[in-house]
What does this fold into?
Amino acid sequence: MARHGGGRSWYGKLIGAALGVTVLATGASVWSAQAGIVGGPTPKATASATPSAAAEQVEASIAHASDKGARGVNITIDDGPDPRWTPQMLDVLRENGVKATFCMVGTQAQAHPDLVKQVVAAGHRLCDHSVSHDTAMDKKSEAYQSQQILDAERMITEASGGVRPMYYRAPGGAFTPSSRALAASRGMRPLGWNVDSKDFEKPGADAIVATVQRQLSNGPTLLFHDAGGDRSQTVAALRRILPWLKEQGYTCGFPVR
It folds into this structure.
């Protein structure tokens, strides 16, 4: 998500349970198209989840392009999952036949594993959005950045039942060369955005729609939120934006890897 005043904001209360780095077992089988298995039962494969022997290194550059090509767009949804808003987002996406990328905060995923599983079951992709949503993490030590990335990866993977995130989005875009390299080594492509809907500011559904329509020429990756406060405006805006994108000849896809 974009950098917002207050740094960690509402996530500050959620950090305590997330300390300590846990590195996933290297011998575990994984699912590279959507994720990977780290022990436990094998989840049912979906259109975006096919088996592979190991997580593969991906590009460390920040992705923006869509796998649907020049007329493709990527719907990305940050900061959840949230028990009130994520189900509503899933309903809107399902009604419009759209798949999205959910950039999840580790503590939120840990608190709401059923929602993480619902996201995966619907064919959406997962993205690591750090443990505590520290938008100043690029100013912290490499050890701290590693803890934020790897612990969130573990939390999301465990909450999903074994499906690993395919991307890493630094809170507020707080990437560093080392954080990008670490994420890429774990099979998570660093993920940017081109269009900030500004929904976090709660400007009203009309303003959110207008921002997306005005900025779409900036590039294909659109940023929305399903947590961090009242997201009713985002839900209402998406109900209008998704059909509009289709009318304009765009196809919703996933960020390139």
Strands lie at 72-78, 101-104, 125-128, 167-168, 189-190, 195-196, 221-225, 251-253. Confidence is low (pLDDT under 50) at residues 4-53. The first strand starts at residue 72 and ends at 78. Helices lie at 85-95, 106-111, 113-121, 142-160, 177-185, 205-215, 232-247.
